[in-house]
Please model this.
Amino acid sequence: MTKTLKQRAVRSGSWVVLGHVFSQGLRLGSNLVLTRLLVPEMFGVMAIVTVIMSGLAMFSDVGLLQNIVQSKRGEEPDYLHTAWTIQVIRGFIIFLIAITVSAGLYYLGKTGCLSSETVYGNTELPLILAVVSITSIISGFNSINILLLNRQLMLGKLIVIELVSQVMGIVFMLSWAWYQRDIWALVYGGIVSASVKMILSNSLNLGERCHFCWDKAAVHEVFHFGKWIFLSSILGFMLNQGDRVILGGLVSPEELGIYTIAFFLANALKGVISKLLISVFFPFLSDVIRNEPDKIESVYYKIRFKIDMITLFVAGLLFSIGSDIIDLLYDSRYENAGWMLEILSITIASIGFMLADQLLLSYGKPKYASLMILVQVISLYVFVPLCFFYYGLLGAVWAIAINPIIKILFTMLIMKINYFINFKRELMLLPLVAIGYLTGEQFKHFMLSNIINY
Model:
C-alpha cells in the first residue's frame, strides 16, 4: 500500500466527512425553518416524489461510477465519453418514464382507484412528479469527470460543487417558502440545485470537456459489469426506499411527513458513512486488492473498527434521547417523530456491515451483494405490512428498524464461506450500544436535576 494511496484516501475521507457534515447541517437548518413554514403533509407528498424519482434512477442504474472506478480503462477518453453518452440517454429515459408514471397516478386518482386518504391519492402528486422529473435531464448532462474524481480519490472539487449547488437550492427554497408557503418551494429548490451542479461540473476545470461517443467495447464492458449493479440498484431502491413506498399506501400524508423527519435524523450519520463507503473505501479497497491482496483483511477490519466505534455508540445514545431531540428542534405537530427516531436509531448499529458490500464489489463479485440485499428486501416487504396490520404504525416502524439484522447474518455467512471473517472483531464493540444508551440516560438525568434545582 503506497504512501500516496494512504494520503489520497485520508484527504478524500476528510473532504467527504467535512462536506457531508456541512451538507447535513444545511439540510437540518433548512428543515427546521421549512417545518415552521410548511405543513407536515407537504413533506409526505414530497417524500413519495423523491422515492419515485430515486426508484427510476436506481432501476436504470448500470453502475457508471463503479465501472469507472473499477475498470482498467477507467481513465481513457473514449471510455469516459461513452459513459457520459450513456448517462445523457439515461436521463431522458428517466424523464419519459416519470411523465408516464405521473399520468398513471392522475388517471388512477380520477377513477377512484387510489384512496384520497393516502399519499398516492393526493391530487397534487402527479403534477409535482412531472415537474420534478425535469431534474433527470439536467443531471444527465453532469460532467463525467465527477465520477473520474472518485476513481482518483480527488474529491475536493466534487464536494465544493455539491455544497454550492445545495446552498443555492436551499436559498431559493427558503425564499419561495417564506413568501408562498406552498409545496412548490421544495420542487423548485431541487431543480435549482440540480441546475447549478450541472453548470459547475461543466464550467470548472475538472478534465476534458465531455462529448458524445459510442465505443462498442466500452459499452459492452459497462453493461456486462453493470448488469449486477443494475440488480443491486433495484434491490437497493426496494430496500432503502421501501419503508416510504410501503407506508405511502398505508398512512396519511401527514403521518408520512412526520415519519420522514424521524427518518432524516436517524439516517444523518448513515448518510456520511455511506458517502465514505462509496467515494473513499470502495476505491481504497479496490486498490489494495489489486496491488497488495495479502493485506486486505487487516485493512478491512481497521476501517470497520473506526466505523463501529462511532455508529454503535450513537445508536445507543439516540435510542435514549430521540424524543428529547425532536421536542427541542420541532413544534408539537412533529411530536410523534420522537418515538420513531428512537426506534429507527437501531438501524445505525448495522452501518458497519455495509462495508462488506464494498468489499465484495472490490473483489468483482457484485452478485453476492445483490443476494444479501434480496434477502433483506423480501423480509421488509413481508413483515412491515404484516406488523402494520396487527400493531399499526408502531409495529411497522419496529419492523423497519430490526430488518437489517437479517442482512447481518447473511453477510457473515457469505464472508465466512468465500473470503474471511473474524467474529471477535465483528462483535467486540457491541457493548458501545449500551454505553451510548446509559450516556443518554445520564444526560437526561443531569439536565432534569439542573432544571429542578433552577
